[in-house]
Amino acid sequence: MGTRDRIVAAAEQVINELGLARATTREIARAAGCSEALLYKHFSRKEDLFHAVLLERMPALTPAVARLSGQVGVATVAENLEEFARAAIAFYRRSLPLSAGLLAEASLLTGFRAMLAETGGGPHLPILLLGAYLREEQKIGRVDADADPDSAAALLLGACHHRSVLGSLVDLGPDDALAPGLVATLIAGLAPR
Fold this sequence. Notes:
Elements: H1 3-18, H2 25-32, H3 36-42, H4 46-57, H5 62-69, H6 77-104, H7 106-119, H8 125-139, H9 149-169, H10 178-190
GO molecular function: DNA-binding transcription factor activity; transcription cis-regulatory region binding
Pfam families: TetR_N
Keywords: DNA-binding, Transcription, Transcription regulation
């Protein structure tokens, strides 16, 4: 593992242990086994380091969406959505500490928004891609023609995010237990009539 990767991994560890507000460059450098000067050789600002953690160390939903798009017409829509819901809950659960910190820190949020604008990325993309998957299933008759794929995608991902927030506050049992019921309820509104 190179120095830059070691610093990013240490930043993730420190953020998880201390929270974003208390994750200082001094603490991160100590955890990475390097000097603050070396840290700043790789990252010009603390915000850049936090953005690297978010983009490089957090599990992305894009691979789960890519798998899902390859499942059009394969297995059942419910099975495909359950697998995706489990991945989404895991993603939101793991990324919640960092994303909450971003929302609470104005300079980090401003920098993150600028980075998203430059790269064309953003947290809305999984919803759009999930909606596209449902539209493809709709075209082959596995989703009702009158269903709204984009609303269904927003409902599913919103519920997954909500579960991760609640699960951070209280013990709701295993996250995997939610996916089947959540998807079954959603499918009831999507199933061809």
